[in-house]
Amino acid sequence: MFEEVIETIEWGGAELTLKTGKIARQSDGAVVVTMGDAVLLCTAVSAKFDKEGMDFFPLTVHYREMAFAAGKIPGGFFKREGRPSEREILVSRLIDRPIRPLFHPSFFRETQVICTVMSYDEAYPSEILAIIGASAALAISGVPYQEIVAAAKVGYIDGEYILNPSPNMLLQSKLDLVVAGTESSVMMVESEAKELSEKEMLAAVEFGHKSFQPVVKMIEKLVKKAGKEKWPELAPIVSSDIINKIEKKYKKDIEKAYSFKDKLVRYSMFDEIRESIEKDFSDVKLTSVELTPLQINTAFEDVKYRILRGDILEKKIRIDGRKSTDIRPIETEISILPRTHGSSLFTRGETQAVVVTTLGTGQDEQMIDSLDGDSKERFMLHYIFPPYSVGEATPFRAPGRREIGHGKLAWRALSGVLPSKEEFPYTVRVVSEVTESNGSSSMATICGASLAMMDAGVPLKAPVAGIAMGLIKEGKDFVVLSDILGDEDHLGDMDFKVAGTEQGITALQMDIKISGITIAIMKQALEQANDGRMHILNRMSGSITAHRSTVSKNAPMIVSFKIEKDKIREVIGSGGKVIKEICEITGAKIDITDDGTVQVAAVGSEKLNDAVSRIKAIAMDPEFGQVFEGTVAKVLDSGAFVNYLPGKDGFIHISEIADERIESIYDRLSEGQKITVKIIGIDQKGKAKLSMRLDFDHVAKNDKPRDDKPFRDNRDRGERSNRDDKKAGFSKDKDGNSSSKESNREDKAADSSDKSSSRRRKSPKSEGNSEQASGTVSERKYFR
Fold this sequence. Notes:
The protein is of the alpha+beta class. It contains 19 helices and 32 strands. Strand 30 and strand 31 (738-739) form a beta hairpin.
C-alpha cells in the first residue's frame, strides 16, 4: 500500500495543497497540486547514467493542458491532443527558466519535467501552480536540485497589488506579472504592463517575492516528510589546475580575441585557440593527463568566463570598448519594402531586424482554442530567427520555443499601446525577420515593430523601444551592463529585458543564471534601462515620430456601418449565397456582427464602394422610383421575374416591358438577360413591381410617377390600353391595378418563398441609381 503525504496552506485567500506518494510512483518525484477545482500533476525524472560526450544540461519541460480538464473534446479530425499550443509552449518556458540555474553545474544527465493540467479552474493561475508543482517534484526527487523555487502572479488595480488575480481582475489590472524565485532572491520575471513606472514595477516584484515565501516553506516541509535520498555529490568536470594552466598560457590570446568588435572574427580566433589547446593536451606524456573534448571545451569556456568578467569588474572594459551604460550605434529606416503595408529596418550594432506590418480584416483574426473557450486575437507578432543571422547553415525548421517566447515578449510590449478595434478596425500582423544577431534581437524586434506599425498608419498611443540589460556579479561586486552582446549574455549572470514608452514600462522579462539577485540590483538595472530606452526612442524618432495619417495604398480600405438586425439574414442569404456573391463580384471582404455592424474591406475605392452600395441596397426596403440593373430570372407568358439586387426579386408585367404593345414576351426577354428596371410599386406584402418603361430625365428631376399617384400601375392608359388588357386576359383589382391570373399565381408563389418580405420601416432614399440608403446608425471610413 502507498502512503500519501499531504501539505496544505492558506494562500491568497484559497487553500493550496501538495500531495505525493499516491500517483506516478515510478517517477523520481511526483506532486499533485490542488487549488480550488484546479488540479495539476507534476513529475520529474532524470536519467540514471551519464551520456558520453554530453556538454550541456539536457533539461526539457513540458506543460500540457488536457481538454478533459475543462470538460471538452479536442477539435480536429483525430480528436486528441497533438502539437503543443502557443500557451503550452510559453508556460513550459516559464517553468524552465527559474529551475534550470538551480541544478548542480556538473549535472549533465537528461532530465524531464512534465506538468499536466488534470482539472481546470479559470479562477486560479495554472502556470503558477505548474511552477510550484515542478519545483516540489524536483525537490523530493533526490536529483542535484539545489534550492526550492516558488512563484506568484501579481496584478495592479487602483494602486493596490493583487496576489494571483482572476481573469476578470486582470481585465481591470494595469499589470500582469509572474515572478519566481527562492527564499532569498528573484530568479525570473515575466510581465505585461500599461506604462508603469520603474518604482511601481519594482514594488510589484517585491510584493510577489514576499507573497510566495509561505509556499517555499510548504515545499520544505514536504521534502522533510517525503524527500528521497540525495544523489551522490558530483565532482567538477575538469580540475581547477587544468583551468589555471590553460588560462596562464592562453590568456593574452583570449584577451586579443575579445578586443575585436566583429563577432565572426572573434569567434574564428576562439576556434583557433581551442584547436591549440586540444593539441597541447593530446600528448599525455607532456601533460600527464588525458582530457576529453568535453573537458577541454568546459575548461576553455571557464577561462573565457574568468577573463571577460574580470575585465568588466576590474578594468570596466567591455568587449567592444563601451562603458557599462553605453548603447551600440543605432540606425533606423522605414518604408524599405514597396508593396508591404508598413516596413522598417532596425540596426543596433551587429543586431538587425527587418520588420513588416500587414493590415487585414476581421476574417484574418487568429482563432484560439483553449481551456477557457474559443476566442479571437486581432494582433499577431511573429518572430523569425533564421540560421544565416548568426552565420550558420543549420536546418531551417518550424518556429521553436525560443522564437515563440521572443515573439510573445514583443507582443506584450506592444499590445498595450495599440488602438481599440473601434478606433482602428484592422487586424494587425507584424513579422520580424532577424537578419543579424549579436544580442537583444527580441528588443530590436520591438523597436522595429513600433516603426513598421507607425509606417503602416497604425495609430499607436506612443512609440515603444526595448533594451536588454546584463549583469556581472562576483561576491558583493557587480556591474550592470546596458545593451548586452551575445557573449555578455552567454557568460554573464542575467538577461534583463525592459520595453516601454517615454511614459513607462510595457513589458519586463528577467532570467537569472546564478542563484538569484537582490532588489537593489534590480533597481539599478531598471534605472539604467530607463536611460537606455529614452536614448533609443530618440534615435527612432529620426525616422518617424507618429503614425502616418493614412494607410498604405496596398492596404485594404475599410468602411464600417450598421444595418437593421432584421436585414442581416437578407444580406447573408440562404447558406451565405448573397454575401458570397457580393464578395466574388466586388473582391471585397465583408464581416457582419449580430448587432448589425457591417465591416467592408477592399483594396481600392471602386471595389469598396461597389460592395457597400450592394449591401446598402439589400438592407433597405424597396421604394418607388429606384432604378436598378437587373437580371431576368424567369420568363412567363404574362411577364418575368427579375433579380434586381442580390437576394431580391420583383415582377415585371408584360405591359411594362415597352411603351408599345408586344405580341410575345419571349421576343423581348430571355433568362439571364441584363435589363434596366424601375420600381413602380410595392404590393401589400412588400414585393416590388417593376417596369422597363423608363423616362430617366423625368425620373431624375421629379422622382415620381407621371400622374403623381403612389403606383405607376394606376396611370390612365386610355381606352385602347383597357381594351388590350381585357383582350389579353387581364383584370383590374380593387386598387385599379392590372394583372393576369398567371401573374397573381406567380406573385403568390414568390411571396410564400420569402417570409421576410413583410413591409418594414423605410430608409431615406439616396442620391443616384447605384448608391442606396441603408438606414445606418453610424458609418466610419478608413480611406487613404
